[in-house]
Description:
- The mean pLDDT of chain A is 83.
- Chain A is elongated and about 80 Å long.
- Chain A has a domain at 43-125: Immunoglobulin-like, CATH 2.60.40.
- By secondary structure, chain A is of the alpha+beta class.
- Chain A contains 1 helix and 7 strands; from the N terminus they run H-E-E-E-E-E-E-E.
- Chain A starts with a helix and ends in an 8-residue tail after the last strand.
- In chain A, strands 4-3-6-7 form a 4-stranded antiparallel sheet, with no helix packed on it. Chain A has a 3-stranded antiparallel sheet with strand order 1-2-5, with no helix packed on it.
- By secondary structure, chain B is mainly α.
- Chain B has 7 helices and 2 strands.
- Chain B has helices at 2-14, 27-30, 42-65, 69-78, 82-86, 90-123, 127-183; strands spanning 186-189, 192-195.
- Chain B has a two-stranded antiparallel sheet.
- In chain B, strand 1 (186-189) and strand 2 form a beta hairpin.
- The longest helix of chain B has 57 residues, at 127-183.
- Chain B is elongated, with a radius of gyration of 37 Å.
- The chains are: A alpha+beta, B mainly alpha.
- Chain A binds chain B through residues 3, 6-7, 10-11, 13-15, 17-18, 21-23, 25-27, 29-31, 39-40, 114, 122-128, and chain B through 114, 118, 121-122, 124-128, 130, 134, 137-138, 141-142, 145-146, 148-150, 152-153, 156-157, 160.
Amino acid sequence: MKKHFIYFILIAISAILILSCSLSRNNPLDPLGNPDVFAPPIVQIDTLNVNPDLIKWYVAVTEEDSLADGYYIYAAFQDNYFGTYDKVGRNISAYDTTFSKDNISHEYIWFKITSYNIFESDTLEGKFSQITQ
Amino acid sequence: MKNIILIIMFLIISLPLFADESNEFDSDSILQINIKYGWDNTTNWKNSRKDLQENMNVFKQWDDKKQSHFTNCLKSMIAPGWGHFSTNNFLKGEILLGLQVLLAGSAYYFYDQSQDYYDKYKNAHQIDEINQYYINANSSYRTSSILVGLWIIAWGYTVLDTIQATENYNRDLWQTLYDQYMNNKVSVTTQGIQIRF
């Protein structure tokens, strides 16, 4: 009886240990851990764009405070569709939603965009857009 | 009349002189039947006393060689399986040692992995990376916690099982010493030399 009781205590301690364990979300840029931070808006590629030398996009802004502070442009080589994307450009205005491919190497084929917001000198980038050419 | 009364009194007083006397004192008749130990005659009593003396002789040896539960538990607390090795329970000791090393090693591996992801999470600036690194870090951390929990159970089991292992060891030791004692025809004790026929 005493032995079973000790086993029960051991299992209970282990269960408490397992169930209570979770890492805290202490990244100051984590919207789920810091209520003062919000996720930057999601960038949508403008598929109606007919100019091949230009990338166009827009953001669906539903709240005033979700307006982006700017955008980052990422690009990858032919073989790197799923691989490494280099940061090749930055637009510092929420309203500048185009990027000219003439500014960068022609070896870059694939592109994707993120919006960003600045919170106390730290930059938080939003979700990547879909990949475009 | 007086003489008749005197004769009758003399006869009554002298009656025990004519009683049937046995040649030997019957101790069984005065020995109370001992229900607890089953001594219903002197032979059993004497045999029990002989057994007790023999057991006492074996007990002295056993008492010197027996292992302490506390010491073995302490050994198992410090190094898993040590208590089992001390009781010559090598296979179980090796299994428990291996299990605990495996659990502790795996727990440390996942904890280290979780810290690696957690550092990346803390330094991440992109929302997808922040979420992904946190999920990875938390997943590894929970796995590590589960393994730590299992390790605690295995450790506790090892310590508790050491009590049983020590109990078995001491029981086997008693049996071995008792068999040795009974097989020895000549034994030297502190009380002298004993020869068994």
